[in-house]
Structure formats: structure tokens, C-alpha cells
Amino acid sequence: MPPIILVVSSETQEQQNDRRSYAGLASHESYATALRRLRPGIELDTASCLGTGDITDLSRLDGIVFAGSPIQMHEDNVEARAAAHFMTQVFEAGVPAFGSCAGLQIAAVAAGGETGPRRQGAEVAFARDITRTEAGAGHPMLDGRPATWTAPAMHSSVVTRLPPGGRSLAANPDTPIEAAEIRHGNGTFWGVQYHPELSLGEIAASTAHQAKDVIDQGLARDQGEVDAMAARLRDLDAVPTRVDIAWQLGLNAEIALFEHRTREIENFMKAVEAGVLGPL
Predict the structure, then answer these.
(1) Residue range(s) of every CATH 3.40.50.880 domain in the chain
(2) What is the pLDDT of residues 36-67, one digit of tens each?
(3) I want to staple 246 with a disulfide (CB 3.0 to 4.6 A). Which of 101, 193, 251, 253 is the partner?
(4) DSSP states of 48-108 as a string?
């Protein structure tokens, strides 16, 4: 039997529609696309963590995946409280969970950690020079990663303090927690601050969509430079073996090839299928 995975959205309906307008898919739809490519025939359900009710059917699931979103978990608002409540129920149920970007931040806050704005501004397009911490050296979520790697990224907030039961597994010079494991209640969560689920085409679309932020941070001088980078990314997405484009962008197969880019998700799926991330 294929595993049953719940893909959780933390975007409002307006945010989902906005992302569809420039990237083609809402964030949870991007995750579902990646999962179906990794596991043809997988059974996927979807849900939003922004509701206020309790969840009653978690026991039928083999795993849960939290997609990214613009949610700001350091703000005291209805959406942040609802997302933390949802994640608390996941921890209590002991269902293995994985999350990217906002997903990591939701899990950290639900377990007692803290998040806040990224001091250097948004990490745009790529998180570069990611390296394992001592705790991450032998962690199965990072199996197959080289000594340092680059990953798709697009975020303005970070985990500033891990909760009890949390371990930082990877970092880069500007983001102290790029990957983490959080054990809380009955559950285990694996998460990354970057986006292994995203295609380079989606990164191109997000970079172009946030061109003003890119220029304001001094990462590009004008709209033309942003457009040129987005065009290169779209070309590399279309032909991942274009080593000329990868070289020009300072990338390699670790991000250009789908099976490399999605390593953390693949490792989570293997752990779910092996039954090693069940209730503690």
C-alpha cells in the first residue's frame, strides 16, 4: 500500500490565489507535485492549518508535510495561533511530520521555540553554503548531501530559538538554523528553512515577483538584472544539464537535478516507509 500523506497549507485563500497568479501553483500544490514525482501513486490529502477546530482523523495518516507560506509565527494573530494549535495536535498524535520554511517555523513555535525577522533581510532565490552542524553530521534527513550545498530559498523570517527537544542540523553564514529536528510530545518533526520541493522555474517566478526586495537589498541593480537571472533559472529548469547556466549562476547538480534537490523529502519518505518515525 502506498503511504498516505497529508499536505498542509498555511496560506490564506488570498495568498494561495496570489501565488497561483505568478508561480502557477499555491505552495501546498507545489509540494503535492514534488511528492507525486517522488512517489507515483502516493495517496495525498490536503488541509489548511489556519482553521480553529480540532483534527480528528490523524491516525489514518503515515506522515504530514507542511508547505511554506508568508505566515509570520512571531506575530500574535489568528493565523499564527491556529497554525501552532494544528501542529500541537500533530505532535500529540505522533504522526511523523516534515516541513519547509514556514513549516519549520510553525513546528518550532508549537513546541516552545521562537521565530523572528531575518536580520539580513530576505534570503532570496538560494540558501548558499549550507553545512551540517555536529548534530547533523550523521542525521538521516541529510543523507546524500555533500559537505556544503545550495538549496532553493525564499524567506524573511527564521527560527531564532529552538524549543526543548530541538536540534539544529545545518546552518549557513547568515541563517543559523537551516535544518532541524524537533522532538515534542509523541512526535518527531524534520524541517528545513529552505525549499527542496520547489522547481527552479518556481524560484525564477518568486524572484521576479519580489524584484523590489531583491533590488532594495542590493542583490541586483535594476529590474533588468532580476529579469535576466529569472530567465537563466527558467532555462536551467527546462534543461537541468545546462552546465553553462549552472556555472554562471554558481550552482551545480545538487540544486539543478530534481533527485538531488529533493533529498530531504526523499529521506523523510524513506523514514516514513520504514516506520522509524512513529510515536515516541
Answers:
(1) 4-197+262-274
(2) 999 999 999 999 999 877 776 898 899 999 99
(3) 251
(4) ES-SSSPP--GGG-SEEEEPP-S--TTS-SHHHHHHHHHHHHHHHHT--EEEETHHHHHHH
